Amino acid sequence: MTFKTIDDWRAYLEKHMVTLKKQVDACALSSPYYELVALSFLPVLPKSKTDLGAMLKVIKALRYGDPLAERLKAIYTGDSFDLSVKDLVEKHLARNKLSNEELEGVDWLLISLNVLNNMAKHTSGQAFVKKLLTDLRDPVRTTSSVRVQAQMITAGQNVIFAGQDVNVVTQNYPGDKGSLRSYLGAIRATWNQVELGSIVPGHNRQVTGLVRLHQLYTPVDVWKDKLDDKDSKSAKQVEQITEMRFRAIESDMSDMRRPVLEAIAIEPLLVITGGAGTGKSALCRYIAVAMAYACDPQTEKQEKVDGLSLLGSSWIHGALLPVYINLRNFAGDKDIFKLEPKTGPADILLAYLLKTRGKFANELEKYLTNSDVSTFGTLLILDGLDEVSQDADRIKLQRIIENWAERFPKCRIVVTSRTYAYRAESKWRLSSKFASAELAPYTWSQMRHYINNWYLQAAIQRSASFGGRETAAARTTSLATDLMNTIQEKQPLWPLARQPLMLVLLTLIHEDNKKLPVIRAELYERTVELLDRWNIPAPEDMLAKKLSNLNLDRMRAALKLVAFDLQKQQVHYRKDPGTIQRKDLLDRLMEQQKLGQGLGASIEDVLEYLNTRNGILVSDTHNVYRFPHLSIQEYLAACALIELYDECVMPPEATLPSPDGWSFPANLSALLKTNPYRWRNVAFFAGSIIAKGSIQDMRWSLIEALLPEELTTPVSEEDMHAIYVAGEIWYESFLKSRNRLQKLTQMHLTRCLQAIRFDDRLDAPERATTSLILARLEAME
User: Are the C-beta atoms of residues 319 and 169 closer than 8 Å to each other?
Assistant: First the structure.
């Protein structure tokens, strides 16, 4: 039998499902997945070249259909049209024999034919779907639309296949299409920029403007097992999951992961969690940009970008209108955030959209609130739930988001938050309607994908930096291979390279310097140099003469002290650096101007240089600055505490240990014990900075300062955090005790770590790390 369209094929399957299923049952296939494939191909098994041609034509018309069509064409070579459906499925279309692209083709055919929904209706339903999920739970090689649909069915969701070739927004949008395209263009222009793009080696504004996030982005994974729902797991289970995660990371196993894009496709309401630099914001920007392309076919054609393909084959919901919100900015708009809603908390977010979406605002409100058109769909992306500083504001946001989900049930919602902030006991945690998933570190394959993408774009956009167009491709391919080999050969780089932000910085440093430092602090030093670049303007630039005598050390000192001031004011559970007011920056520059030879240039010229030519500061609004990432702020704050301790104004709650004033490491120890969440990363950086030196005494002094003089039971919370940090600092370089005092400190560190090893106040990963450190310490005794 032949069909002209996929719709005809699907209609036949639905009408004759009972008969076809009996034929499939008689085949005694080895898995439920193969049953679905067999059911799909039974009506169209080709008996001639004409039949084959008709089937291939329909399959090629599908997205992801070409690779499958080529495989089928190869299967039916010559006159081999006597294959049974069992042999076709289990011998020729077996999952372990297909490439990722061919698997996507098979999956997308099954979804397009709606065969899983129909099979579930005519079998034991949920039991069949659960059996199918078990069958598909092998190590994930690629995203799977069938797995997405099966997960949705088991969750009781109403699965309606929208089709990747059905543009919901374009076909059903009733307003001005020009206004819609302008709105979508603004999303792409705002969020499709590469982070740190202005400091690409050999960059200029024209080149930087050509580099796009969607060309470089490498989708991450999420862990399958959750740790944040501690109420439903025993401490032992949490420990077991944590240990399995460590093994999965170290062995590069994929069976505990699933693609984040698959998770977003499965869950209509989802909270994505992760630590600093794990890629939460990049993910938000990427899916917003992908949807902004998908809703704008005209631009897709012009720029040759397929928006829905960017989201992978698991996205079965068609094009949805993207709405991207930075929650820190939303909560910071006090005029809007303090409004009293008339019909529900969601009114406040609607008011914010009306204020910030320009000419499209009214159109957007109509689109969101129009319940007459059942096919309308929206993707609301809320970035940074943890960034809002006040608990009361977070609780208000919780109510707004919950009310929005209730009021607009066709709106899919993605929220991001730092993992340690989004705890089960948090008052502002969203209800159980919102699933949660934690981002997992990069696999080796993902690292390689990003590095290859980076150097591929470098060859195209910056060919002059690699000897011209004729040599750029070969040289960048060689550099990509070298960087990947360097990371694999140097184990201390593994934890850094697994984090998306750090891999960006590693790649930048590698392209610029052709080698990578091993010590974390040295890497950040090079990172700061890269961000800052300390580049004096070209000779023809009017600013060049004014800055010819610029004292870079003085300028760096001012920035380090600014970073310390910001960290001192930093609110808990923030993932972004604080904002620097122009006045505060000027004050620190003026202090450096008065010392020795000063800055070597006028303060206004230095400020202009920092504002317009330098990458270390970012200006989002007039006269307000920030560092590009919180990690940079923390690193510079650590530098200030070590190098400029007499200029760091300590907070009043820190107890002065000596009448002689503050010095390092007593200052860092006091800060960490006063406020561990604010200063722990700064402490890690401090340990790494002094680990660069060849003299160990300073590192032992820091560890000694962090440990309590007397170990009490139970250990106080401030001592617990300080002990853990001390252990991490020792672990980074495996310090060897060389004298009696260092040996005593090492023994005390061991006893302290033993006291907190199973402390529930530490997160499960930290408890696991504590066990690793103890094992190494005990082996050295």
Answer: yes
